[in-house]
Amino acid sequence: MDKADGLAQARQNLADYLRLNSLRNTPERNALLEAIYSADAPVQAEELAKVMSEGRRLRISRATVYNNLSLFEDAGLVRKVFQDDRILFERTDKSKGVIRLVCDGCGKVTEMSGDKLRRQIAQLRTRRFNAVGWELRIYGLCSKCTAELKRKQNRLNKKDKDKK
Ligand SMILES: [Zn+2]
Where in the chain is the domain with CATH 1.10.10.10? Predict the structure, then answer.
């Protein structure tokens, strides 16, 4: 499933969800969904509001963006991601899985591409479960925290030697 297929499917799911809940399907809603699905990384609501008012000549208030984001979340089309004290939103379809490296020292989160792993996960069969997306978290220490830890260890070693 490539990016365009993902968006087409998401549009269809949104239309179904809106119909089921007796809500209107508006150009604004579709444009917002498209903005999220065409982004390469998770985006902030603020950013989305900006993008919407700039490129598309659709006047969408910030409140509308927030309301629709929670509607998309209910519909299973987007999910929240917490990153450096910020709340971001990302698409949920399976083609857009994410691999994150999480530093146990400073909490920094970075994404990695991992194409081979992505392909393997895309082929996974999930019994009695309709998978729509995935996230893999790898825990450890970033290079900054690793260097910091080494400095601390060196200081401790030095103190030990000084005592002797
Ligand atoms: Zn770190």
Answer: 1-94
